Amino acid sequence: MNTKVKLAFIAILCASCAYLTSCGDDDDSGVKDPETPVEPVKPSEDKALSPAQQKERLEEIALKVSDMLPASDFNDLSTLGHYINDTYLDSNYDWDNVEDWADAVLDDLTTQLGASTTTSDEDTYNYEYWKHTSHYIYTYIDTDYKRLIAISNFTGHFTANNGKWIQNAANDLQFIFTDQNGTQCVLKLETSGKTINVDAGTITEEDYDWDHDSKTENDWTYDTYIYTITQDHYNYTIKVPEHIILTLTQGGRNVVKATVDIDIKNISANNKFDLSKNSLTVASKVELNNGYTFNLSQAAYTANSKASVNFEFTKSNKKVISLSASADVSGMPQSNIDDIDDDDFDDVNGKNVLVKIDVLGELLIQGTIIDAKKYSDYIECAHDNDESESQFKSYINQANALSDINIFYDGSTTTQATFKLESFEEAGYYYRYWKAEPTIYFHDGSSYSTFSAFFNETDFKKVIDKYTQLSDDYKDFISE
Fold it and tell me: Which one, out of 65, 134, 221, 259, has a CA that is 20 to 30 A from the CA of 403?
């Protein structure tokens, strides 16, 4: 089976997130902040949890999460997935009809704009001692194309039958096959709503060929090497829809359902994605038949203004983990997806950064940073001055002044621990310098503890063993 077709089928089957680019005006409508940050209240010493009590509480929460997510939840999905891989994605299955269809659709969506051929860089080397001349000729063939890609163009029903896929005309894209028990399964991709064209940049495909000719005259050998470099440049325009729905059903019941929703009202048609001017808002949800739901309710970026994300993982409608983050963004370069360079981001900054991680509603880690660039610069300056105690500590203290990271339990606004950077001396016979380590400060009067000392293998052995076993269980499902 053609590799790109097989990879596409696997990607669809696994409900991979689609790569989507949206461009728009500086309009932040639809961009929502995460939940209001919790205003931390410090407890009195008699009501503050001790480090030992917090270790016990964290262990309890971690074990509760692991008990909720046994690998056995994926028994049916694993069985179906392995059967599909071994039966339909195996090299013994005939994908010729699918490959021919995909190539034909791409050909229909491709228009040649122009071509040029140049012969240059002719090099000749004479070797008198060996009576040998080598002549090199390089030919470059460049062709420009444009492709307008729309999911709605890829239509057809492909039915697995006796080792090959039988195609029938249709208005959507479906792969129809049976599972290990003979139950019909349908993998279906469809779109709805309005569409808008977005310039997705240029992809170059290069091919390389060479030929050799040799002749001998008067005991002198003449070798000619001809190199042909062919480059096809495809400028892609994506027809972005408002809604994409991917489903895998088994016996008429959903096994996997993935939806992607794109807010296209802010998209500027036929433009490239310019980080300094354009905006993007996407939502995505993946639902599995074992009760697991992954909901990216929003991933939004408003050019040089705001960025935010809200994600929640639930099992049987019970929240397991949620993540929300936001920042006021500035300094984004005038750059598109074709020519992004790391150096272009030197002036990028995020102010009023907020990150919240909630586990089971029983543990909340919340962090705020007033100015992310200054925070990073102070830490970098500290490292540049790590042989000076006073300068190192000064920069670390300035970084700490910009951050406020707290831990809360059971929905309370009372913080039980605060995270900061602490300066420590590292010294040996030939060296002496200062380093910073993340540190947990408690409110029960017991001072602080470094991460490595607090989260040690002895106190959290049960958690480590549990998650190691859980990881091994999931690996077994994948490798079976």
Answer: 65
